[in-house]
Amino acid sequence: MSFASTAIAVTPVLFILLLIPILIGVYVYRDAGRRGMNAVLWTLVAILAPSLIGFIIYLLVRNSYSTLKCPQCDAPVTEQYIACPQCGIKLRASCPSCAAPIEPDWMVCPRCTQPLTDYHESFAAPVRPKDKGLGKILLAVILIPLVVILLMFTLFSFTGSESSLGSASMSIDYYLETCDADVSEWLLDLPQSTDTAYVLEYKTKQNGQKFTQYLVYFAPLTAESSYSLGSGNNPFKNVVQIDIEASDITDGESVLLITSIDKDYAELKITYAGKKVNCEIAQIDLPLDPDKFLIMSEDEATFEETKILK
Q: What total number of domains does the chain contain?
């Protein structure tokens, strides 16, 4: 795998590894501030301590605080409030004699001993919103490492196998002298087009490696044409990229023979003078190199030798 492809695959992993402490830090800073704790200190502890130890300690020792809200104006209140200090709505029942807070099922006021048997007072109890932030953090802590492991496994699968890519340019006349009759017939019947490349594709595999051969005919391609061959910019696919430069020479039609060995079958992309070329691909069951660079064993089931055209 090229350095650029490796960098593309590693970047999401590094981003995810940095995202976890950022999420934890934001949550701890806000939560500690609401609880009257040292927000900056606890944020540093939660972020810098290894293996989430700091975050776990914070969850164990953090101070309790009221998360109650006024049901009318959403202002923060406590269990001791009889009325909301912002809008004045009644939050708890109170003794008609001493105004001390009481519970609806009490029979006597514990402060002034006033009987409460027949006393009823309407009020709107405070509401307690759920702490959704902690649930999201814990979910991220569980899921993000799984994503990192999956990405690392994917990266290892790409770097753990060898790949080869080769090409050869040859005149049509030379190729016709040695190619299979079906290939010859296909090649001679092709139309002249500057918008479409006509391609034969041969695929086979051995020992986990997948072989892909392409025979490419493109009308503007001549013996004097310059082209470059690359593996594309997609680290998750085996992409064969052919970039053909424009040329004023129109004599000497040629074909390109491309051979790819990789863990995946190749996907072909062609550009001409910087523009994408449409590829019309047909499948074939025989190797496409006329000089038999892919040598088959007697049972025609495995390769005895593989040579890549340079």
A: 3
Q: How confident is the model at residue 213 (pLDDT cuts 50, 70, 90)?
A: very high
β-strands 253-262, 267-272 pairing:
unpaired
Q: How confident is the model at residue 17 (pLDDT cuts 50, 70, 90)?
A: confident
Residue 206 and residue 202: Cα distance in Å, rounded? 14
Q: What's the pTM value of the predicted model, to 2 decimals?
A: 0.47
pLDDT of residue 299: 37
State how far the Cα of 151 lies from the Cα of 148, in Å rounded to an integer.
Answer: 5
Same-domain check for residues 239 and 293: yes
Is residue 225 domain-shared with residue 291, that is, in the same domain?
Answer: yes
Cα 307 from chain centre: 36
- Cβ-Cβ contacts under 8 Å for 94 (sequence gap 6 or more): 82, 100, 101, 102, 121
Note down the domain range covering 197.
Answer: 164-306
Q: What φ, ψ does residue 170 adopt, rounded to 5°?
A: -145, 155
| 143 against 71, higher pLDDT | 71
Tokens 């070329």 label which residue? 277
Range picked from 27-41, 57-71, 85-99, 294-308 for highest mean pLDDT: 85-99
Q: Say yes or no: 200 and 104 in one domain.
A: no
Which of the four pLDDT bands, split at 50, 70 and 90, describes residue 234?
low
State the burial class of residue 140 (Cβ atoms within 10 Å of its Cβ: 0-12, 13-18, 19+): middle
Q: Which amino acid is at 308?
A: I
Same domain, 235 and 137: no
The reply to whether 283 and 245 lie within a common domain is yes
Say which residues have a Cβ less than 8 Å from residue 99's Cβ, sequence separation at least 6. 82
